[in-house]
Amino acid sequence: MEPLFAILVGLFFAAAIYLMLSKFSIRIMLGIAVLGNAVNLLLFTAGRLTREVPPIIPANLDTLPDGAANPLPQALILTAIVISFSFLAFLLVLTYRAYQDIGTDNTDKMRVAEPVDPPLPPMGY
Questions:
Q1: Contact 53/69 with Cβ under 8 angstroms?
Q2: Using one digit for the tens of pLDDT, what is the confidence trace for 16-64?
Q3: 106, β-bridge pairs
Q4: Which residues pair with 24 in a beta bridge?
Q5: Is this model's pTM higher than 0.70 or not?
């Protein structure tokens, strides 16, 4: 099962990089979301994919039994999901406001806000 997840993680990373190299801000935002999901899946795969022994410490032991799933990546993924959702919501609002003000989501055309001939800095006082 791990090789299948490794291939899937590689595809997610490739799709995320392809989307983030675009010049449209919506595609960049979707690429960031896919990248977050790829990292979450990578952490999940690194934490061992076992369904036989849940990450619960029995009453007579002090540590997890051998072969148990690692609970730390699962906790990290739950935290990362919440953070990535809030970050994606912020990016969505930022992209929408930029589209409202400028009228495009093309990052090359967003450069109209930059001055063509900026004034020189003062030479002295």
A1: yes
A2: 999 999 999 999 999 999 999 999 998 888 776 666 667 777 788 887 7
A3: 24
A4: 106
A5: yes
Long-range contacts of 2-10 (CB under 8 A, 24+ apart): 2/45, 2/49, 5/41, 5/44, 5/45, 5/49, 6/45, 8/41, 9/38, 9/41, 9/42, 9/45
C-alpha R_g of the chain: 23
Closest CA to 74 of 100, 47, 103, 99: 47
Sign, CA dihedral 49-54-58-63, equals positive
In this structure, the number of other CB atoms found within 10 A of the CB of residue 60 comes to 5
> How does DSSP classify residue 51?
S
Query: Is there a contact between 88 and 32 (Cβ–Cβ < 8 Å)?
Result: yes
